[in-house]
Write a structure and sequence with these properties.
By secondary structure, the protein is of the alpha/beta class. It has 13 helices and 12 strands. The strands form 2 sheets. A 7-stranded parallel sheet has the order 8-7-6-9-10-11-12, with helices on both faces. A 5-stranded parallel sheet has the order 2-1-3-4-5, with helices on both faces. The chain is elongated.
Length: about 325
């Protein structure tokens, strides 16, 4: 007798959400008929996650949770991992793909939040806001224009022209900045945005913003040689991944006044702060990986990621699929 292929019953799909995934995501899932939902505020260690992932069909995480090959191997029913963030480098994609676990993220959900913070950090750096604020807290009233400038007329150099880089370019142009982009994998077609070589960007930019993808080729991309090519009056901003930056080289560049300051949202290790030697400096602004953490971004992440869950269950390719081959194998879920 021929059987008819059907979707897996939504009420039997077990979902585990970590790291305080928003209420909106849970509400949206429940509205879609998914009732077996467990939500945990924090991340889990590998050992705890190995236990928790058993029996789970869909796993939702942010950037702090590390999905290792051991976790993938322990997952006996896992169909997909949804990353409620931009990156997926916290997930062992090779292990997930080998086991047929689809991985997807929300690559456009917090582009506005990240781009806005970069502009804010640029203003704070070039106006010496952090130093003047610290002085005010000590009772010193530093009312002076020396060393403070406007963004208009300055050159914004963007390393990596993904969704955030493209949005940042728009904001930079709106503020009257010259915008340069270095990205060997993208062709820039936006009028007024100039695509240049990496070395040219370093030499010409007043702000060097690192938004590159983290991989073996980009590790320590910003090293002693790179900082030496920047203008002494320039500032460095990293809102990508910490391992793109040689922190010791950055500290030396600041010590030797080869650059004027820096802003860092990440450290060498995922979701850890930069070294204290950098974070405590008056010429460095350190934020705790909060570039994309706004209520608006959380809402966008919730809807984007949940809609991709729905796409996957319905047999459609999620637009944020990081391993499309695994998503294709899950093209249609069968009743067990």
């Amino acid at each position: 007798m021929k059987t008819t292929q059907t979707s897996y019953p939504r009420s039997r799909i077990k979902i585990l959400l970590l790291e305080g995934i928003s209420d909106s995501a849970v509400a949206e899932l429940r509205a879609g008929g998914y009732t077996e939902i467990e939500r945990i505020n924090g991340a889990m260690s590998e050992a705890d996650l190995v236990k928790a992932v058993r029996g789970v069909h869909l796993l939702g995480i942010r950037s702090k949770t590390q999905i290792t090959s051991k976790v993938i191997e322990a997952a006996d029913r896992l169909l997909a991992i949804g990353a409620f963030c931009i990156g997926v480098n916290q997930i062992d994609l090779t292990a997930a793909t080998k086991k047929g676990v689809a991985v997807f993220n929300a690559p456009y959900s917090n582009t506005r939040s990240v781009a806005e913070l970069i502009i804010g950090l640029s203003v704070m750096l070039i106006r010496k806001i952090a130093e003047k604020n610290d002085a005010a807290h000590r009772g010193e009233w530093r009312k002076e224009a020396k060393g403070s400038f406007e963004l208009r007329g300055k050159t914004l150099g963007i390393i990596g022209y993904g969704a955030i880089g493209a949005h940042l370019a728009e904001l930079g142009l709106a503020l009257g900045m010259t915008v340069l982009v270095a990205d060997p994998h993208k062709r820039v077609t936006r009028p007024m945005v100039q695509q240049v070589q990496f070395a040219d960007l370093l030499a010409k930019s007043d702000f060097v913003v690192c938004l590159a993808i983290a991989n073996e080729q980009t590790e320590n991309l910003m090293n002693a040689e790179a900082f030496a090519q920047m203008k002494p009056s320039a500032y460095f901003i990293n809102l990508s991944r910490g391992n793109l930056v040689d922190e010791a080289a950055l500290a030396r560049a600041l010590d030797e006044k080869r650059i004027s300051g820096a802003a860092l949202d990440v450290g060498r290790a995922q979701d850890q702060m930069p070294s204290l030697a950098l974070a405590r400096r008056a010429d460095v602004i350190a934020t705790p990986h909060t570039a994309g953490l706004t209520p608006e971004a959380a809402e966008h992440q919730a809807f984007d990621t949940v809609n991709q869950v729905k796409d996957l269950i319905a047999g459609r390719m999620p637009p944020g699929a990081a391993n499309p081959e695994a998503a294709r194998r899950l093209n249609r879920l069968k009743r067990s």
